[in-house]
Amino acid sequence: HKVKKSESICETILRLTRKDGTYTNTEAEVLDCMLVLHADHGGGNNSTFTNVVISSTGTDLYSAMAGSVGALKGPRHGGANIAVVEMMKAVINEIGYTEDEEVIKALIERIVKKDFYDNKGLVYGMGHAVYTLSDPRSLLLQEKAKELAKEKGMEKEFAFYQRFEKCAKEVLWQYKHKHVSSNIDFYSGFVYEMLNIPMELVAPLFVCARMVGWLAHNIEDKCYCNKIIRPATKYVGNLKEE
């Protein structure tokens, strides 16, 4: 397969990852939406901050990008959507695509109590440090996921994801008295599955999208600051008294 100038980046990715090289307009639109939503998330996220910190030393752009990739591949950052996929596989294997919300809640309670899946007590894909009421990226992606699920004949699976999100909100409020909503990672892994994107390509695609944001913040820092970033640290332990 060769790159075609007439195709968009998303169309090229879909064609090159498939043996028959075919894709639908809906698939290309959904992947394009994913990459746009992942492109930037402010300067405070880990990989973007890493990029600006490294670049502030005056080193080359390639080093800054490599550092950002290293930060992004961590499971608490860019690897989060894969964590959601693995968790949901375990959930579906345990209770199937049940419509019984009480069964779903009971399993989520087990997750919270560290009695199911990886025993860490985390419901992956739920909650966000910045988007505490709702994640607009997740809301946009849900709309696109709904379109794709209909085209793929996977409406049952999509409906289960929505039920799980609804139940997770209720359980997390009950146990942590904290309002949370799904973040973009909750649905993105499912969307990649519907697009038949191999899981090993999920993080690299995130990098392709986020590289736009990294570069934008890198340039902005050069234009308006251009000083080495040296975060202050403060010792908070106890000093030995004489």
Task: Please name the defining characteristics of this protein.
flat, mainly alpha, 242 residues
Beta percentage is: under 5%
Distance between the termini: 74 Å
User: What form results from the Cα inertia axes?
Assistant: flat
- SS field, number of helical segments: 10
Textual characterization of the structure:
The chain has 242 residues and is mainly alpha-helical. The chain has 10 helices and no strands. Helix 5 packs across helix 9, helix 6 crosses helix 8 and helix 7 packs parallel to helix 9 (184-194). The protein starts with 8 loop residues before the first helix and ends in an 18-residue tail after the last helix. The relative contact order is 0.17.
In short:
Helices cover 60% and strands 0% of the residues. The chain is an all-alpha fold.
Topology:
Layout: H1 9-16, H2 25-38, H3 46-55, H4 61-72, H5 80-95, H6 101-112, H7 136-152, H8 155-176, H9 184-194, H10 202-224
